[in-house]
Structures are given as structure tokens and as C-alpha cells.
Amino acid sequence: MTKEFQATQYKLESVKTGKRFEDEGWTLDAPGESDPSLIRAIYENKQLEVKDNSLGIYKFSDWLPIRKTLEGSSAPATYKSEGLAKYLGLNNLYITFSGYWPEKGANFRTCSFKETEAYAVSGRLNSTDQVLVVASAGNTARAFARVCSDNNIPLLLSVPEDNLSALWFDEPIKDNVRLIATKSGSDYFDAIHLSNLACALDGFVAEGGAKNVARRDGMGTTVLSAVSEIGQIPDYYFQAVGSGTGAIAAWEANLRFIEDGRYGQNKMKLMVSQNAPFLPIHDAWKADSRAMLPLEDELARKQVEEIDAKVLSNRKPPYPIAGGLFDAMKDAGGDVLVASNEEALEAAKLFLETEGNDIHPAAAVAVATLVKQAQEGKLDKDACIMLNITGGGEERIKREKEVIYLKPSHVFDIDPDMETVREVLEKLF
What we know:
By secondary structure, the chain is α/β, with parallel strands linked by helices. About 35% of the residues lie in helices and about 20% in strands.
């Protein structure tokens, strides 16, 4: 841990009311407000000063709500596309890559942009007296497990049993990290429910998901990477979404750059995508509904089973909340696009052929929708486009390194009772 690091100076603000207040250490909600609203970090430094690459993600510390830096992080890498751009006839396509691609300067050992969240959230943590609780459909758990294991932060992960194949690592995970699962047939929503039960016990603290400003601003480093590399705010932002938190983070970073004043005054159109047939955000957006539309539990679980991009399977995204995805898209413009498993598979092959690296299914969903938009003539060939590749290089890292899998300490029923959860967790920590 670097001794010289000075905690970033910032205040917190309720998106709903504009009221500003101090961060009490782990503030997730605006004090004294009953209407649901995200809170936002307002940084003292209005202009971003990008620091040395050796700091990894913390080169963007001006706009990260952190008290300390940790070892081992990598910043997202942005480069101008040649192969894919030529194939699509786009003159200003920039790819922001978070994954394993050492030649491009991307060294994410878990191959996912969820590492940006894990390093930012862990950098915000004041003490390690309590166990941090994270629910995940896979990639987030892998990222938090790696970062918390390497930095001795107590962590409890809750993941659906069907997604445990996502918990691979290039080095063993220490015992300060424990994994529990919801039995086969369950989904991310069930894992969240289990994590909420854990958080009701003494000694456990919720990481907070989209409500945690560190998580969003960690993700926002993809946009900080792109804008500082390109020298301007892009016209379009393409990303696949499960919760939409990454797109909210992109919008917030965009607003900071407008205030910075050196990169333009435009808002990137948020072109977010989902993997058919699981389309809750798409369906709500197309209905022009702030509220999520009703979705029956069994149907949702069946749809989640069918999609290849399991990490995009969030049934309760931060879409309706003030400052959430609905507000972001209404303010910035854009659309919710759709790709099938087959289209995503083709897009992944295309990316490998034209750019030279493998990508995760979720990133392939984003590529597939970019391909469709370009081929249908919906994008100006000179438009500045940011394609957020949220994970990749996994096949490559598994070829180059021996990987091991984290096993769950306990597999729970889909709806476990509180006493069982208490008994199991008392033995684990």
C-alpha cells in the first residue's frame, strides 16, 4: 500500500434532491430522504489529472471516492480500432478493453471490467472489521475474490450454483474469502436474496451494488480511459447491460467531463444491449416505462437459463430509481438493443478475427448490436464511437496459465430460513 496517497476529496449528493453531505465512511443512501435515489460523488478536482500508468486504475484517483490504493490493479486500455472499424466502415471506432491483453496494456487477471469496481470499492473501505458481502452472477464475484484475497479483506460471496464455472483463478484464493451458493435452478436474484439474509447478521456489511458510489465510479474509469485517450467525449457508447450500472457510470463520467470543459460539451448516446430472450430493461424502455414491467419468477429463471451471457441476468436493475438507467438514457439519449445467442457468437468470432483477442459473451452482445447498427446504416461513418469491451482474454489466459476453481462452503435452498444461514455463516467466519 502506498504511504503517500492522500484520500480523494469529495462530497456526496442526492440525485433526487441535490442535497450534499459528507461520506460517513460507507454511505449508500441520502440521509433523511425517503424517496429512492442514487447518491453521487462530487469531486473537489473538477479537471481530471491522469497520473502515472504504474498506479493501474488509481491513475484516475481524482475521480474515485477512495481512502487508499491497493496493489495489483490495471486500468482499462483504449485504442483506435483498425480491423473491426474497417469491416464495419467506421472511421472513428475506439475500443476500451478490460481484460487480459498485455500487449494493449490491459492486465486484468480476472479478465473482467468488474475488477475496476472491486479495486474502487476496496479502496473506499475504511476498515476490515466487518465482512463485505457481494452477490454476483459470476464475474463480479471473481473480481472481488481476487482483490480481497490479495489484500486480506474479509469477503462473503453469494452466487447461483449454476454460475460457479465463472469462479476460476490463476492463483489460489485465501481463506478470508468464502463462497456460498443458491442451488441449481436458481438465478442472480436468488443469490441477492441470500446475500441480504447474510447482511442482516452482525458483522456483515452489504457492498451496496449500484448504490455504492465507488462501484459506479470504478466502472466509470472505462470512460475516463476512452476520453483521455481520444481527447474528446465520444458520440456513442456501446455496452451490454445486466443491471445497467456500467451505463449509469458512463453517463456520470460524461457529465464530469462536460464540467471539466476540455473534452467537449456533448452527451454520449447510450447504446445498451441485452441478450434475448431475457430482456427486462429493453421491454421497460420500449414501453417508455420508468417502472420495470412485471416478470413472473419461473419465466425469468427459464429465460436466464437460455441466455449465453449469464452475467446480464439482473431482474431488479437500478433502472427506475432517481439517477438510475431510465434517467441516464432520458438525459443522454440512446436505445436498448437486442442480440440473440447466435448473433453474439458470430460477433465474438468477428472480434477475434478482426482485432485478435477472445471476448466474453456479454461483450459479444455489445459487438453484435454495434455490427447491426453499422450494417443497417444507423451510424454516421465519421461518428466517434466508444465500444466498451467489458471482458476478454479469458481463453488466452487459460491457455497460458493453470487455473483453479473456488468451491462453495455451502449450497443453500432457493429460499433458506434465517436460522440456517446464521448457523452456516457462524462456522465460516
